[in-house]
Amino acid sequence: MSPPETEADAGAATTRLSIDLDALAENWQTMRDLSGNARCGAAVKANAYGIGAERAAPRLAQAGCKDFFVADANEGASLRALLPDARIFVLNGVFDGSFGQVLAHDLIPVINSPEQAQFWTGHAGGRAYALHVDTGMNRLGLTPEQAADHAQSGGHAPVLLMSHFACADEPDHPLNARQIEAFTQVRTLFPGIDASLANSAGIFLDPRAHHDLTRPGIALYGANPVNGSDRQMRCVVTAETRILQIRDARAGEPVSYGAAHVLTRDSRIAVCGVGYADGFHRSGSGAGVPLRSAVPKSAFGAIGGVRIPVIGKITMDLTMFDVTDVPEGAIGPGDWIEILGPTIHLNEAANAAGTISYELLTSLGKRHARIYQD
Fold it and tell me: What is the DSSP string of 18-72?
């Protein structure tokens, strides 16, 4: 969790985020219901995927969530002040520099290697921990063989055994079945211990993946976690940018850096105060970036539900939209253009920038005025 930041002044900001905490809670309840008999936790790492953990986590706790997952001990320490009774798991585990934070704030480290296991069992005096087993991702986690050695070591048992899907967003990928089988086998080494495998996509994938505790993340924040599915979660984040100027330009004139976009008609251009410093990725530019040869459709905005394309290159602080087809006089300086929200779905906006919903949300900059609806 990031250190507290000075909130942007809503009147002075040229970008704003409207964050619907009730929609966040409803998405968690949906994932809880889909988890069957398993408890449902919540991933709130990376400042609750960019929306603000200090507001998101208490709302999830109010909805009934009791298990939270963060990336590091600093995030966990910040969260503990908000959630004194929750179980807070630290996914990156524990090492000498984070040990004090973990103990002081009653955090549960996720042990990811034999070295971390040796450190924790040698220093923590029997305090709770989770054990992460790698079942096919080759990221963090003990191998199944190392997990077997750990189970036979005679040390105190973890409170949670966990693994992580690599391809759950692709339901037909053969690795999913292999991971489910591998995790099921490892679980037999730890009888009576709670187990957790399913992330957001894993909850939709297979009830055999639910076990005792699920760990939804991106679905809570409004994204569809399964490729090719039309399932819609409730929209949590609406991002808008303020129109600074509307200018007229003639056919044949260039727009933005590099003159990469040349107008093919007389046009009206809305120049707005948002750019890649605000998480509106340069790769979503209307011209002049390599992505456009692979993904011809650029990013876009919306006014009153009507889509308007980005033209030219997105710059650090400014983006140009083609509003020629918006009735003249219907918009002007000071009005707002949606760049993410009910018209432009999170997954769609990410695709237009050649990225994923996770990166889009977590790259939101500091200049947005955040308006929480609860």
Answer: EEEHHHHHHHHHHHHHHTTTSEE-EE-HHHHHTT-HHHHHHHHHHHT--EEEESS
